[in-house]
Amino acid sequence: MNRRGFTLIELFATLVVIAVLLALLLPAIQQVREASRRTRCRNQLKQMGLALHNYHDKFGSFPPGAVTGRGSSPTSNCPVGGIANRDSRASWLVLLLPYVDQVSRYQQFDFNSSFFGLVHAPAPATNAPAQMEPLALVECPSDPNSRPDNALTNYFGVQGGGSVPDCTGSPGFTGRVFFHNGVFHNNSRVRFTDVVDGTSQTFAVGETVYLQLRGGGPNYYGTWASSFWTVGTGPGDQSSLAVTLAAAVLPINRVDLNPRHDWTAEHQSRTFGSRHLGGCHFLLADGAVRFFSENMDPWLYQSVSVRNDGHGASF
């Protein structure tokens, strides 16, 4: 009896067919996985929205963007100065912990002691160990930097927006912008009634992939629990940074830098972005979450980041 096996040509043809099938299937599998990751990011923002409303119900306002010993007036003491990692206290994300079922994490912090904005000696923050522990709730799995060795956040509070900030860092640090026309800023206590443009038409929290991480800045990096980086006492000596806040200045996804390898601190406070294709999610002040295109009208993008400019726009 003759036994016939595959010829080399037949084997090669079979392998080619398998390779073509895999090439067709892999993009579909990747799309399904990304759709799942994108849904998780969206749901996490929804959970934050509910938490923000519960916080407002209890305290009569949204949490401050960050608590410092300095005032929040746009016309004085802007940007926020002080001694690094001594004059900063809790950020909005830390204050929100009890309202996202994270009471045990909340209890790890000493709210009468210092938080860091960016890790740096010689003034170590008392709360540094708790700040450096990751929190899965604020990490979007679409971001490859969402990994155990980074305590990152992919969500920044919206401090406002526009083409001209209330102030910036001193020369050399002018990419660090400060606005007071959004839902969150230094020592803010914004109420629903302060969102005069309408809670359904105003950004509260947006996605980001720009938080400065270890590697991009060996001695200067942030975490999800970072507060203001308060540095300097005068207009010529200010490298301060609103670490977990950003404003709508640059368009969505405009900055093409990886904070794990690149220095992003001069960009992270003036744009939003994500690893999702074509744009990013925003949580609106009414608790709704929507995906906004990176090609949206620049004026509209900046305007809906402001709580009280009378834009009256819809999208």
The share of residues in helices is: 10-25%
Extract low-pLDDT stretches.
none
Radius of gyration: 22 Å
> In terms of structural class, how would the helical and strand content be classed?
alpha+beta
**Annotation, overall tally of beta strands:** 11
Instruction: Estimate the mean pLDDT confidence.
Output: 88
For the termini, the CA-CA separation is: 76 Å
Number of helices: 5
The strand line-up of the biggest sheet is 9-3-6-10-11
Summarize the structure.
The protein is α+β, with helices and mostly antiparallel strands. Helix content is 22%, strand content 13%. A five-stranded mixed sheet has the order 9-3-6-10-11. The chain has a two-stranded antiparallel ribbon with strand order 1-2.
Description:
The structure is a single chain. The protein has 315 residues and is of the alpha+beta class. Helix content is 22%, strand content 13%. The protein has helices at 8-59, 92-95, 103-106, 128-131, 298-303, and strands at 66-68, 88-91, 155-161, 167-168, 177-178, 203-207, 228-229, 241-242, 245-248, 279-284, 289-293. The longest helix is centred in the first third of the chain and has 52 residues, at 8-59. It is globular, with a radius of gyration of 22 Å. The termini are far apart. The model has no long low-confidence stretch (mean pLDDT 88).
Quick tags:
single chain; 315 residues; alpha+beta; 5-stranded mixed beta sheet
Describe the protein's topology.
Blueprint: H1 8-59, E1 66-68, E2 88-91, H2 92-95, H3 103-106, H4 128-131, E3 155-161, E4 167-168, E5 177-178, E6 203-207, E7 228-229, E8 241-242, E9 245-248, E10 279-284, E11 289-293, H5 298-303
Parallel strand pairs: 3-9
Antiparallel strand pairs: 1-2, 3-6, 4-5, 6-10, 7-8, 10-11
